[in-house]
Amino acid sequence: MTISIIGRLVEDLDSFMARDPAARSRIEVILCYPGYHAILFYRLANALWRRHFNLMGRFISNASKILTGIEIHPGATIGRRLFIDHGNGVVIGETSEVGDDVTLYQGVTLGGTTLEKGKRHPTLGENVIVGSGAQVLGPIKVGAKARIGANAVVLKDVPVGATMVGIPAKVVMGQKKQKIGDFTAYGTPTEDLPDPIFQSFENLRSQLNTLAGRVQELEDELKRVNAGDNEKNNNIATPGSSPGT
Fold this sequence. Notes:
About 40% of the residues lie in helices and about 15% in strands. With about 240 residues, it is α/β, with parallel strands linked by helices. Strands 3-6-9-12-14-15 form a six-stranded mixed beta sheet. It has a five-stranded parallel beta sheet with strand order 1-4-7-10-13. The protein contains five helices and 15 strands. The chain folds into two domains: about 1-190, Hexapeptide repeat proteins (UDP N-Acetylglucosamine Acyltransferase, domain 1), CATH 2.160.10; about 200-240. A hairpin with a 4-residue loop joins strand 14 (about 165) and strand 15.
């Protein structure tokens, strides 16, 4: 158990060095990074939880929350090389599952939406990035390499490699548009990111223009029909064309 925990903590430490350009040394991360402290406490609390020392696991988890401002339930399942940047306000619920190489920013919630005892928290695939303030709620699945933008509220499954923004979150960029291997800070691309609200208005305007064109065609057709009827009526009313004249 000890070797496994130490190995995981070394990997976690290396993930901070790799993904935070402000980290100058491993000693700095160990001493000054609350995100790393929270993961350290979680690894210990989770080891106790899995061996049914539940109260001790919860006690360590609560101490970690007080010291770091990050709440990770000891029953959560967290993979290797988790990176929690800044960290304050992060909440990871009991039945959450977090894959390898996931990045979470401050204020992220992996929360439940039911009072039932079963699976009620989200599952994050590998290499997922969740931006600051994002809320991922319910027993949903977030596909590998997905990006959740800052302050997004995710309530439905997220496709592999998709970028989600908004409340409720919507797909604004698919996997094909993402550059392979790119790290997207805060889960929010800063270039070529379409605005879903603007797109909705553009689609609505396009539909209105189509309808306006169709209405104009119908009005023109109606005018032609009326003109033909008027011509017929005029011919009937002409004395030379009336019967018996």
